[in-house]
Each structure stands twice: as C-alpha cells, then as structure tokens.
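Hello,

Our lab assistant flagged a job as stuck in the queue for most of the afternoon. It eventually completed. Since we weren't sure the result was trustworthy after the delay, we are filing this so someone can double-check. Below is the sequence as submitted and the structure that was eventually returned. Let us know if re-running is recommended.
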Amino acid sequence: MGMKGIGPLVIILIVGALAVEGVILTDLVGRMDNIQRAARETEIVRLINEMEFAKQYLNNALSFAFYQSAYELGNSGGVSSIQSFSSHNCIPFWREYGTSTVPNYDSNLQEVLSGYMNKYGTVTKGEAVVPVFDQVAIDRQSGIVSVRSTNELKVDSELAKINDVAEARQKIDDAPFLLFDVGKEISDEIGSSATSAGTYGEAVDKIKFIENKYASLYGEQGIDVSIDVENIGSSDSSYALRALVNVATKSKYPVYNSDKVTTEDAIKLSYYVVFGKETVTYSEPCI
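-- returned structure --
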C-alpha cells in the first residue's frame, strides 16, 4: 500500500515518535559521554595518587639505598672491587710499606648507590613503572643526595596515562664521608710518622698516639676510632706491623645486614696498613 493510504494524523504521530526517540537517544548519548568523562577524571585522580605514592616510595628507597651503600662500602674498606686490592680477611691495604693506595670513596659510593637504588627503586608495590636511574649526585655542602633518570616515571591504565620526571632527593648525614676523611687523615699520618720507627715497640707507641689523637679529635662529632696492631714479622727489631684501622659512627642507621635482616647498625670503615723493617707475604685473595 502506498503513501496515499496513510492519513495525515498517522504521519504526524510517526514524525512525533521519531522526534521523541531522537531526544531520548541524544540524552542517552550525552549521559554516556558524561559517565565516560567522569570515569576518566576519577581514573586520572587515582593515577595521580599512584604517582605521588611512587615518588614518596622512591625518596624513602633512596635514603635506605644511601646508608646501605655506605655500610657495605665501609665494610669493604671503601673499595667497590676488593679483588683489585691487596687484602687480609677481605679488608684492603691502604698502605703497603712505601706504597699508598687510598680508594676514591666518592666515586665508589656513587657507583654502589646507583646499583642499590635501581635494586630497591624497582620493587615498588604500586602501579608505577620505574625506569633505570642513570644519574647520581651527592652534594656534601647541602647534605643532599639525588638520583634521576633520562626516562620518565609512568603510571598507565586503559582510561588514562600519567608521566612525570623520574627523580628522588633525600637529606643525608655527612657521617659516611666524615668516616673516610678521618680514615684518610689517619692513613696519611701513619705514613708520615709511624713508618719510620726502628722497632715494633716504638711503632706500636706511635700508632697508639695516633689512635688517641683522632679518637679525641672526632669523638664529639660522633666518630669512634680504634687501631689494632700485630707483628707479622720475626722480632721486635725485624718487625712487620699490620694495623687494622677502624673508624665508625656512634649513630646507627637502617641497613640490611649479612643475615638478610633489616636492622640498625653503625657504619664502619675498616682498612689495613702494613710497614716495618721486614718485608713479609701478608696478602691473600678475597673470595
């Protein structure tokens, strides 16, 4: 049947129904758009919170990584690779008779810190994707340690993506650097005065004088100093003195100890000095 069989009233009703349906569809589309927009905005807020959580985590991880690095580097005598040094009980010799081999503590600390930060920083329990930190800076004057990556910190989901600079900053104590400063002063003074001793007894007296001097100088700054000596030569007049120098913080810091337990412990720098009238074989490989 053609259009002639449709009355004007029916046509008006059909047109009206289509108009109403169009209004309803437009309203539904608008509502869906609003719902999607609201969901995306809610997701963005959630991801921003995730990003803030990640940043706070990275700052805390940096603090722990710094003291862990100082703790382990101190225990290895400031040496990042003990295999390259003469050593005893895996503690390096900073002075071997007339030869002084003092490690570069600053660069070694940055190297170890970089490794620990990338180990701890990537285990965040949040949703952030943490890149590798390839820049480490330590400013002793301001007491700030910082790390940064050339790649961004990311938090992504199906609805939204958030990117930000991957960096962390933390205030630190100067104690690990002071330990090394004191240790180097002691090593230099042993080299300039004690090594000229004619007998083992005379050398011990000079070492004890140095020990008392630096313990007094730095005790009020929270630093403990001790030097243990032994004769690895054949006699008092043909001696080889091996001195174990220990410089430690009186304060304790959170560290991950050899038993794989997080605890608080002092940071200690240990190294050996060997000198005397008799040359002996004293070094063994550290495994």
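-- support follow-up --
The delay was a queue issue, not a problem with the job. The result is valid. The chain has a mean pLDDT of 85. The longest strand covers residues 144-156.
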